[in-house]
Design brief:
Number of strands: 0
Order of helices and strands: HHHH
Radius of gyration: 12 Å
Structural class: mainly alpha
Oligomer: single chain
CATH superfamily: ACP-like
Strand content: under 5%
Number of helices: 4
Largest sheet: none
CATH architecture: Orthogonal Bundle
CATH class: Mainly Alpha
Length: about 90
C-alpha cells in the first residue's frame, strides 16, 4: 500500500486530536487546530512522555516501529508522516 505524505499527515493530525481529547494534555495550546505544520512540543507543549505515548498509538495504528533515532528528528506532524511512511516501506 502506497502512503502519501499529505494523507498520512492528515490522519496523524486526527489521531493526535483524539489523543489530546483524552485529557492527557490540558493546556490552552492543546485546544488549537492541529495541522501538518503543528509542532508537537512548541505548539502543543507536549512533554516527552506524552510524545512517546502518542508515538505508541501511531505505531499501533500503522503497524510500524519508529526507531529512537528517527524520533529525535520529529518536530511537526509532517515530519512524523515522513517517518511513518519510511517505516512502512521497510
Amino acid at each position: 500500500m502506497k502512503l502519501s505524505t499529505k494523507k498520512v499527515a492528515g490522519e496523524l493530525a486526527t489521531i493526535l486530536a483524539e489523543y489530546l481529547k483524552k485529557g492527557w494534555v490540558d493546556t490552552p495550546a492543546s485546544k488549537q487546530a492541529i495541522t501538518p505544520e503543528t509542532n508537537m512540543v512548541s505548539n502543543l507543549q507536549m512533554d516527552s512522555f506524552q510524545v512517546m505515548e502518542f508515538m505508541l498509538e501511531v505505531e499501533d495504528h500503522y503497524d510500524v516501529a519508529i526507531d529512537l533515532e528517527s524520533l529525535s528528528n520529529i518536530q511537526t506532524i509532517l515530519d512524523l508522516a515522513g517517518v511513518v511512511i519510511a517505516a512502512h516501506s521497510e
